[in-house]
Please model this.
Amino acid sequence: MAADAARALTGRAEPFAIRPELIELLEPGAAVPNGAVHCTGTVLDVLYHGASSRWRIRVDDGTTLAVAQADVAADGGDSTLAPGMPVQLAWRPEHAVTLQG
Model:
């Protein structure tokens, strides 16, 4: 994530990266885990990969993040999160890796 977007989320203008499987997808209005960095966004698309799925989420500043999670629905995907739907993303601050310029 670029410096401007990082500042908006963390208060620090240090670009960072985070692994897609370390980002939690939450429905709008769901409780965010204590101490988590979080933002809102919109589902762009989802790719089903058998036992897991990968979502692309456009967050409010225009950045696109990838989120990977194990599938929980019987049909191989989370049918509640379709393209165009709003979501929240959350992750532990220690999971973000600061990028060196």
Q: What stands out?
A: The chain is about 10% helix and 40% strand. Helices lie at 3-10.
